[in-house]
Amino acid sequence: MPKARPTTTPADYDTLYEQAVGYLHKGAYKRAARILHALETAQPGFRDAAALSKIADEGARAQTFVQWFQHCSCSWWYLWSG
After folding, report:
1. pTM above the 0.90 mark?
2. Given this model, what pLDDT does residue 76 score?
């Protein structure tokens, strides 16, 4: 027999929202995006989760680009100086 899924309350949504906002402030965009997308899926129109998820997605993309660029810069420097 499958286990019953716990019921999510509005207080849980508030807690998750605050957690996501905290992640945004810390620059943890991927974590914030996951939470905000889940909130928007579970409770469409919840506060400004949709708008914040777009911000989190953009931040995550920017971080990925910066990490990629740093990796390439280090590789180019190694090849050039070697």
Report:
1. no
2. 55
